[in-house]
């Protein structure tokens, strides 16, 4: 009975942690809905007065971006802002032929009168954080706008964001990500679904109540003095944006999130690219929990509620580990339930945690409704999208759990960039992208084994007990089977 007790205890703890996270999401939903009733009274610069228009530096950190570099530079050159108060830094850490083609393109743009510089380094120490820090040393702007290579800000972007810095306590203005290839495939749809939830429910829900939010690494603006006051960029985690965000807010800088300002970007279209991005984000989140946990807990200037939301925010990625634990242990739990009749009251109580899924379903519906509108047709589409999203998200749980464990255990790894494709239509081809890895990770093999394991879980529903089976966990195992199957076969197919 010792083994069974251990399984039950670990399973229960993981369920409790997921339930706590669900309750936090529900609280963010209430915050989000209440924020819609408030009018934005933030003071703003008057851009009709030339004296109130500040000097801006746009930083473009890039690394081997053959497929999107021209698009990025052409788009940034269209930004509508006084040329005498704007400089553009192309922070180029590339190691391939794009260094030269980028230099040539920059020279053409410079000839139009734009102040644009091509800044290269002899080494990539600190990766993206190191490049941003290097550029900051010579940046002339009072405010620093940052865009990754796959982002396409609209012409009036600076005029919609910079005015909020009239409030001298604001250190960052962050905008919502858009998705130019949202409907390319199931993979891009579920990525967009997850990001939309973050950029509506979570960012607004936290920011509207003064809780900590994060600069998302791109599509935002920093006050230069805020970066320096917070200790500047540091490259000791894989998510330097989250790291600096917390250090700034711990020093009482305010962040302004603009849900209504959308910055279009390209989602990864190949699962290997999505995997590398997910790994970096999830490992970086765990690394920042290690780095920031005690600083958040010990800070006397923030409320208990902000501390709780902050810690859960930093533990976001750890939810994948809890989901994996619950999934793997759910099959032994199915057998334990039907072997030990005296434990039935416990299992009746545990069924309460189905409420976690219901909470996520409700929270994400408000996000979906905000993006696509209400009505029965949209609700039916949402039901399908929710279960596809949940299944595939669980299919990523092994991959992301390994990232989380590495982060919590302090294992260091390189900053692996997400390959860009410049693909928005299904007819576009990504097969010949030179930056794609050709090898298959050992993780993929285990994802295939987990697919079979949860297939066994579905079979078990028919044979356990002596009353014709037990189908309570069958939908859960079906979703896990589909999720791991999707990730496994997509990962194999992308290498063929």
Q: What would you say this structure looks like, in words?
A:
This protein has 17 helices and seven strands. The chain has 496 residues and is an alpha/beta fold. The chain folds into two domains: 2-32 and 317-493, no CATH class; 43-305, Spore Coat Polysaccharide Biosynthesis Protein SpsA, Chain A, CATH 3.90.550. It has a seven-stranded mixed β-sheet with strand order 3-2-1-4-6-5-7, with helices on both faces. Helix 3 (98-110) links the parallel strand 2 (86-92) and strand 3. The longest helix has 34 residues, at 2-35. The radius of gyration is 24 Å and the shape is globular. The model has no long low-confidence stretch (mean pLDDT 92).
As for the number of domains, it is 2
Level-2 CATH architecture of the largest domain: Alpha-Beta Complex
Number of helices: 17
Strand content: 5-15%
Number of strands: 7
Q: Taking strands numbered 1, 2, ... along the chain, how are they ordered across the largest sheet?
A: 3-2-1-4-6-5-7
**What sort of overall outline do the alpha carbons produce when their principal axes are compared?**
globular
Protein name: Glycosyltransferase, catalytic subunit of cellulose synthase and poly-beta-1,6-N-acetylglucosamine synthase
Subcellular location: Golgi apparatus membrane
GO molecular function: glycosyltransferase activity
Pfam family, one: Glyco_tranf_2_3
């Amino acid at each position: 009975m010792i083994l069974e007790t251990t399984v039950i205890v670990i399973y229960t703890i993981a369920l409790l942690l997921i339930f706590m996270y669900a309750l936090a999401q529900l609280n963010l939903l209430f915050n989000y809905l209440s924020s819609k009733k408030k009018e934005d009274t933030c003071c703003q610069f008057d851009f009709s007065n030339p004296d109130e228009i500040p000097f801006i530096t746009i930083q473009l950190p890039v690394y081997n971006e053959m497929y999107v570099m021209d698009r990025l530079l052409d788009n940034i050159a269209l930004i509508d802002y006084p040329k005498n108060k704007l400089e553009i830094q192309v922070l180029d850490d590339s190691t391939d032929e794009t260094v030269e083609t980028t230099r040539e393109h920059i020279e053409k743009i410079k000839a139009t009168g734009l102040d644009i510089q091509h800044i290269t380094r002899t080494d990539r120490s600190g990766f993206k954080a190191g490049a941003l820090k290097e550029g900051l040393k010579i940046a002339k702007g009072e405010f620093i706008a940052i865009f990754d290579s796959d982002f396409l800000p609209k012409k009036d972007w600076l005029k919609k964001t910079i005015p909020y810095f009239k409030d001298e306590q604001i250190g960052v203005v962050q905008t919502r990500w858009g998705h130019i290839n949202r409907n390319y495939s199931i993979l891009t749809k579920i990525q967009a679904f997850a990001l939309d939830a973050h950029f509506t429910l979570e960012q607004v829900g936290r920011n509207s109540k003064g809780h900590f939010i994060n600069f998302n690494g791109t599509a935002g603006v920093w006050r230069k003095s805020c970066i320096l006051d917070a200790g500047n960029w540091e490259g000791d985690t894989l998510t330097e944006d989250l790291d600096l965000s917390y250090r700034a807010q711990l020093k009482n800088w305010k962040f302004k999130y603009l849900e209504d300002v959308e910055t279009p970007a390209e989602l990864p279209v190949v699962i290997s690219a999505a995997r590398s991005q997910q790994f970096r984000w999830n490992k970086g989140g765990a690394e920042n929990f290690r780095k920031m946990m005690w600083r958040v807990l010990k800070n006397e200037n923030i409320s208990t509620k902000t501390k709780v939301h902050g810690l859960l925010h930093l533990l976001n990625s750890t939810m994948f580990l809890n989901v994996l634990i619950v999934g793997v242990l759910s099959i032994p739990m199915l057998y334990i339930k039907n072997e030990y009749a005296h434990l039935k009251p416990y299992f009746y109580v545990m069924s309460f945690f189905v409420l976690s899924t219901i909470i996520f379903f409700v929270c994400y519906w408000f996000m979906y409704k905000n993006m696509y509108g209400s009505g029965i047709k949209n609700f039916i589409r949402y039901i399908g999208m929710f279960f596809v999203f949940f299944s595939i998200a669980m299919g990523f749980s092994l991959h992301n759990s390994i990232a989380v464990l590495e982060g919590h255990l302090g294992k260091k790894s390189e900053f692996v960039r997400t390959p860009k494709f410049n693909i928005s239509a299904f007819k576009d081809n990504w097969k010949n992208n030179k930056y794609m890895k050709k090898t298959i990770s050992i993780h993929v093999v285990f994802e295939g084994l987990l697919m079979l394991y949860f297939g066994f879980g579905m079979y078990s529903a028919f044979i356990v007990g002596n009353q014709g089976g037990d189908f309570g966990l069958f939908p859960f195992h079906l979703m896990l089977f589909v999720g791991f199957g999707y990730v496994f076969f997509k990962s194999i197919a992308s290498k063929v």
